[in-house]
Amino acid sequence: MGAIAQLIQRQHARLANRVCLDLAGDNAVLLSGSGRSGTSWLANLCNYQNGFRYIFEPLNPDLLAADDAVTQWCPSLDEECPMVRKMLRGEISMPWVNSRNGRLIARRRLIKEIRSNLMLPWINHHFPMVKTVLIIRNPLAVAASRKMLNSLADGSRWVWKPSLERLLAEPMLADQISNRQFTALSRQVGQGIVMETIADWCLNNLVATSNLSWQQTYPIFYEDLVSKPETSLRALFEFLDIEYRADVMVIHQRRSETSRSQPLSNDQPSDNPPQWQTILDCGEVSTATELLNLLGLDRLYSGDWQPCLQPAARD
After folding, report:
1. 165 C-beta neighbours (distance < 10 Å), count
2. Does the bond joining 273 to the residue before it have cis omega, within 30 degrees of 0?
3. Cα(80)–Cα(71) distance, rounded to whole angstroms?
């Protein structure tokens, strides 16, 4: 690419970070998943042709004004949820939200949010035209990633702050989990980033996978994206009506801006042994196993911590 073309491309990107003519209407995709589960990476893969207006984490509570803050992260179907409606309609705009966008005019909208798992049943009900993608990653890997990130953080920006206690206070959860399950999750409050993350993961994915319309929501595992990317992406792109081209694999190897991992190798699709085994202790792994079994989430990950739910089998 010549110098002039590069300059034009940079100026286009700077302008798109500030303004976008959003003509998408209801033509939107919501990419949801726990933080550190590969949401940014998958969003980059879905947007590898720059075909979407890319909206980045619009519900970030550190950026919303007090009057706009989300008060119910697990809403009942009759809740109003004005900020969620604004998110899905592309009506939230600020530098953080627009920071990854590269389009000036858009007829499709891609929203990436790490706080929306508990909202997915509400979104499916009120916005049936919005397609949702739920990315799921081994909870031990998610917990290890957050622990490692916190240990490397040189400021508050990248420090993971536990949200388990706040989520357990959601009124609607009484209808979602049993007293025994609630007690087991509550015991993890204050037990450190690893155990709070695992309990948070269980809560988010239990609600998300138990109450969804699988005609609107596509589940995809991080591990499958790593080990069999072409098969996984072809199936996902068919669901989302995105053209599959071989150059998407360039993005696949690159990972995301928020990742602290090295680029993937075709010869070594996953760590052996997994990195989380060197970060977490046996007690943490044992408690995680007990929690997944108690909440019925062993249907997502088997005893060897590999995914066992097949997206093709969804209803």
Report:
1. 13
2. yes
3. 11
- Neighbour-count burial of 182, counting CB atoms closer than 10 A to its CB (0-12 exposed, 13-18 middle, 19+ buried): middle
**Euclidean distance between CA atoms 36 and 146, whole angstroms:** 7
Q: Which strands sit side by side in the sheet containing 53-56, from one edge to the other?
A: 53-56, 109-113, 28-32, 131-136, 217-221
pLDDT tens-digit readout, 14-47: 555 556 899 999 999 999 999 999 999 999 999 9
Question: Which residue, among 213, 30, 175, has the nearest Cα to 115 in the 3D structure?
Answer: 30
Which range of residues forms the domain containing residue 265?
A: 3-313
Query: Looking at residue 274, what is its pLDDT?
Result: 87
Q: Name which of 131-145, 151-165, 219-233, 242-256 the model is least confident about.
A: 151-165
What's 199's domain CATH number?
Answer: 3.40.50
Per residue in 283-293, pLDDT (tens digit) is 999 999 999 99
The answer for residues whose C-beta is within 8 angstroms of residue 101's C-beta and 6 or more apart is 16, 17, 20, 53, 54, 55, 56
Coil, strand or helix at 197: helix
What is the token pair recorded at 186? Answer: 């509550």
According to DSSP, the residues that pair with 136 across neighbouring strands are: 221
Q: Where are the alpha helices (DSSP H) in the chain?
A: 3-16, 39-46, 82-89, 95-98, 120-126, 139-152, 164-168, 179-186, 193-210, 222-227, 229-240, 248-254, 276-279, 282-294
Dihedral pair phi/psi, residue 105, rounded to 5°: -130, 130
What span, in angstroms and rounded, lies between the C-alpha atoms of 196 and 85? 29
Q: Output the CA–CA distances (angstroms, integers) from residue 127 to 85, 141, 215, 237, 305, in the order listed.
A: 9, 32, 13, 20, 33
Domain count, the chain: 1
What is the torsional sign of CA 142, 89, 122, 315?
negative
Name the pairing type of β-strands 28-32 and 131-136: parallel
